[in-house]
Structure formats: structure tokens, C-alpha cells
Amino acid sequence: MEDGYQNKTAFIKGAKDIAKEVKRQAAKKVGRGVDKMTDEYSKRSYARFEENDDDDYPVVPGGQDGGYYRGDSQAANDEEGGHSDSTEGHDEDDEIYEGEYQGIPRADSSKAADGLAGGDGQQFRDMAQFEGERRKDQEELAQQYETILQECGHGKFQWTLYFVLGLALMADGVEIFVVGFVLPSAEKDMCLSEESKGMLGKCLIVYLGMMVGAFVWGGLADRIGRRQSLLICLSINSVFSFFSSFVQGYSTFLLCRLLSGVGIGGSIPIVFSYYSEFLAQEKRGEHLSWLCMFWMIGGIYASAMAWAIIPHYGWSFQMGSAYQFHSWRVFVLVCAFPSVAAIASLTTMPESPRFFLENGKHDEGWMILKQVHDTNMRAKGHPEKVFSVTTIKTVKQMDELVDMGGDISTLRRYKLKLTSLFHQVRSNFLAIFNPEYRRTTFMMMAVWFTMSFSYYGLTVWFPDMIKYIQKQEYASRTKFFTKERVEHVTFNFTLENQVHRQGQYFNDKFINLKMKSMVFEDSVFEECYFEDITSSRSFFRNCTFIATLFYNTDLFQNRIINSKLVNSTFLHNKEGCLLDFTDDNNAYMIYFVSFLGTLAVLPGNIVSALLMDKIGRLRMLAGSSVISCVSCFFLSFGSTESGMIALLCLFGGITPSCTVNKGVFYALAAVLGISIFQSFVGITKAVPILFAAGALAAGSFLALKLPETRGQVLQ
């Protein structure tokens, strides 16, 4: 009896299970029908998300269930007992309470699955057809994604991300200035040769690293994600910036700055791509311009820190003669703070949903867009607003065609993954040279080159010209003494900017003093005593020393030239490379000038952000280039220090929109501009002025030929 009852129960349960499976398969077939409707999505316009709309949701025209948005018809269908994959596992008698997690809405991938299962992917053997389908998917995703961003709104989430990415861009701005600021101190501390100083001073090594970084990380961001790539970039920059503040050797320091540049070079293309994928089209131009302001803030931060730290040589310690940690190393360490702060902040932010959708990860992209929507709605006082998007278009993936099998070795699997990664980076790079983009690509490269060539060339030329004017003025104050005779005199004060020729010094003492730019030529020192002497740019040429004692001085090496030493002794000579302290006052001025130059850029950047979407990107770019071109000719009137500072502020204030976009090509232009412009310092102003004006004029002309992107969907 009990067996019969159990058989009957099992039969009934089996029948119910069969009925559930039939319903589930029927729902999937309906889902396939809905997927066919997605091609018409780009032709439909979604109702704009209204702030005062509390309970109404747009209904997809012509659809009874499924669709992209949750509507009343779908709720009715749910009441009739319809099942979906997200609620599978609940019996008809099970209750689903309000607020219970019911699964993430999933994209319907049945077409791709059927195609791969039946026929080993024959429909994708024609790669041209596959690429065409991918492009169609991308276009549909672009249209739908723009509409979804409209519903998510612009608010707390975007502003939080703005400040986080601003720190990353600030770290890039700091990196540009670091090497140039530490050079005057580092070249003495590390005993750099003239060739090495030129390499480091022109920041060539930094720009080389940034070129490599922009190319590598810009491509990898399309594969491993914008957030992940940016975290790696900033981590590399932070680590090697930290190391560069402690290393003692020039080669090691150069390597650290190179790798630091590789890290920070990838941040620029990633930051702008990352942020733009959270911005609706009417907000994109303005807020990307606001984001550029952090690059200027990075320059201001670097200038202010250099002004406050580097001239204070007392902020240092020394362990013997081998290890020295001077104030410029403290400055390098402080300049790593923005990058570290950016890393800490970025860990709290999500990946770009557009990246997930482009790579076929529907659920991850949907969840992030819902997070954006909910964050903004709660901040605006509408927490009851519900994210109505249920399904988002995803792009077919190339990896779906590769079946590695279960018996493949781990090494082989990783090799195939790396090969696939390399090919994707390569294909992404070559895509900009496709026939449809080739003309625009070359024109953009030319525009970036002309703008960067002029801007970076002149921004380095200005401080160098100010240094040259300062040196000329300093040289004009040099005091000359000829055939003087000094006996039994004790010198215990600083000697500076003097030239002594054919002098005679008998039984004189030079004790505990500094010599700055002191030159003794054809002079005789007899029974003199030198103790605790620190010199900078001071030399004894063709002199004779008779019965003279040198104790704890740095005069032995490279200071006494073509001179005779008769019964003279050197004891406890100072070792190591000493800092050049002849430009203490000038150092303050140069850092202050750089501070003013970067500060002057901010007003122009604010104006460009406010006008970007009103007059258009191209008019803004071309207009500021023309004004900058005209201002170049005023540089010929800068013959004094104050005049050059005023012209620097003028030029910086009207050129911010020329430097908004950056890439691999801008670094090459910057290297050439800096190298060429510096070579004419102290020779002529005409060549740098003509080069800068000509490049800006060409850039403004080419900018007007570019396609306008205002009001267009982000493809």
C-alpha cells in the first residue's frame, strides 16, 4: 500500500517537474523572439528619466514581455505565473518577498550558443561577416548606452569619480616637472657629466617612458579594464618614484625615472576614456575640460613643493660619504603622494560598465550602471526611483570562437591567452588607421604634434631664458681686483662673485667660509692656511702655493688648475659631490616663476570648460591656437626678468585648450620642442618665436578640418 502511494507521489512530482521544464523552455523561446527585436532598438527612443516621476516606468512599444525596460505588461505576465531563469527554482507555492534577491537580468545569448553548438561555429568562419556583426553590435550598444546614461543622471557618482581621477591626472602633471626641478641639485649630488645633465634636464627620459606607457597601457585597458590598468600604472609610478628618491647612482636614478614615466604615461589615455564612459553626451565636453584642470593643479603642487623644499639644504642627512639624502630627494618623495592618494581612492570605484558590455559581460555592466543610478538618485532625494533597464546589448567576442579543450596544458593555455592579448592590442592600434579613420587619425596626430611642440617647447624655454637673464645680470655685478697685496689677514666670511688677478697673499688665513663664483688667476699664496672651505664655481688658475696648508676643504679636485704646489699639504679633503649653492636665490625665483606660470593656466582652463559645449570643440581649439600664435610675437619684447614672467603668464593663460588631449605622439613632439628651443637660449629669440607661431598656426588650420564631436554618441 505504501509502495503504491510512494509511486503515485513520485509520478505526480515527476509530472510537475516535466511541466516546469516545458514552461522554462517556452520562456526561452520567447526570449529568443525578444532578442530579434533588439535590432530595432536604435530606432526607438526611450522616455527621459524625469526627476518628479515616482512610480511610472516606460513601456516598450509593441512588447508584451521581456524587453529592455520593466513595464506593466511584464508585471502582468509575472502575475500569470511566467518563469524566467532568474526565478528558476521557485515552486508555484513559493513566496517571493519584496526586496528578495531574484537574480541579475541576463542578456539573451541563445543565438551565439546555438550557432556554436550546431556546426562548430560555421556562421563565424567568415571573419569579415563576424567583424560586421561586431560593429553592428557596437553601434547598437552605443545608442542604448547613451540612453541608459540619461536615465542614470549626472550627480554624486560622477563628481566622486571626477576627484578620484583628478588625483591620477594630477600625478601626471607632477611627473612632468619633477626632473626639471631636481636637476640643479641632482647634477651636483650625483656628479653628472654635461651629457648626462642634458639628458636628464630636458626630461627626455621621462617623455620616453611616457611614450612607451601610453602605447602599452592604452591598448591593455581595452583588454583588462580601465580601472585595473590605471591601478597598475599608478602603482608602477608610485613604486619607482619612491625608489628614485633613495638611489645614489645616476644610472639607477635614470632607470627609476624611466619606469616611473612608463607607469604615469598610461594614465592620461585611460583617465579620459574611463571618465567619458560615465558621462552623457551633453556633459562630456565640459566635464572632461574640468578634469584637465587637475593636470594644472599637479604643476602648481610640484612648483610649490619645489619652492618650499629644495632650497632648504638643511633638510638632509648623510651617512658617511657614500649615502646622502638631500632636500631634493625629499621633494621627489613628496611628489609621489598624489599617485599614492589616487591608488587608495580608485580602489573604491567600479570598473567602466562600457568596458564590461564591450567584452560581453552583461551582468557586471548592468550592476555598475544600477549602482550609478541608485547613487545619484539617493543623493538627489529620490531613493524610490528604480533602475528600469533589464537587458543591455553586448558585443560578440572573438574568444567565443576559440575552444582550447580540457586536455590542454596550463603553459599552452597562458601562451594562447598572451597571444590573444597581443593581437587585440595590435588590432586596436591598427584600427585607427583603417580607411574610415585614417584621415582623421593623421590630422589629429598633426594637431597634437603642433600644439605639444609649441606649448612644451616654450614652457621650458621661458625658465631657461629667465635663468640666462639672471646670469647675465649676476655677471654684470662681478668685482675685479688686480695686483693686490694682502698680508696677515683672516677671511672668515663668504667670498662671492669676484675675480682676483696677479695678487700676492702672505700669511693669510681662510677659515670656515664659502666661496661662490670666486676666481684667482696668476696669484701667489705663501704660508697661507685654508680650513673648512666649501666652494662652488670657484677656481685657482695658474697660481703658486708655497708652504700652504689645506685642511678639510674641497679645493683639491677640480678647483686648482695648472698651478704649482711647493711644500704644500692637503689634509682630510672633503669627499663626495657637493651641491651647487651659488643659485640659492635664483632657485627660489625659478620655482616661483613655474608656480605663477601653471597658476596662470587655471583661468583659461575654466573659460574653456564653460565654453566647450557652447561654441564647439573645434572652434575652441582653433581659436585658442590663433590667440596663442599672435601672443608669440610679443615674446620678442621680453628683455627683462619681470617682462618674461608676464609673457609666460600671458602665454599660459590662453593656451589650455590646446593641451587638453594627449597621447603617444604628444610626448615625441614635447621632446623635440624642448630640445630645439633650449638650443637657442642666449643666442636668439627669433627662431623659437617663429617655430612656435608657425606650429600653432598650422595646428589651428588643421583643427578646423577635423570632424566635430559635440552632441554625438560616444562610439
UniProtKB/TrEMBL annotation:
Protein name: Synaptic vesicle glycoprotein 2A
Quaternary assembly: Interacts with SYT1/synaptotagmin-1 in a calcium-dependent manner. Binds the adapter protein complex AP-2.
Ranges for region Disordered: 25-93
Keywords: Cell projection, Cytoplasmic vesicle, Glycoprotein, Membrane, Neurotransmitter transport, Phosphoprotein, Synapse, Transmembrane, Transmembrane helix, Transport
UniProt function note: Plays a role in the control of regulated secretion in neural and endocrine cells, enhancing selectively low-frequency neurotransmission. Positively regulates vesicle fusion by maintaining the readily releasable pool of secretory vesicles.
Similarity remark: Belongs to the major facilitator superfamily.
Chain's gene name: SV2A
Protein location: Cytoplasmic vesicle, Secretory vesicle, Synaptic vesicle membrane; Presynapse
Organism listed in the record: Oncorhynchus kisutch (Coho salmon)
Ranges that cross the membrane: 159-183, 199-218, 230-251, 257-276, 288-310, 330-349, 442-462, 588-611, 643-660, 665-683, 689-706
Keyword Transport set for record: yes
Listed GO biological process terms: chemical synaptic transmission; neurotransmitter transport
Record's bilayer topology term: Multi-pass membrane protein
GO cellular component: neuron projection; synaptic vesicle membrane
GO molecular function, one term: transmembrane transporter activity
Domain Major facilitator superfamily (MFS) profile: 161-715
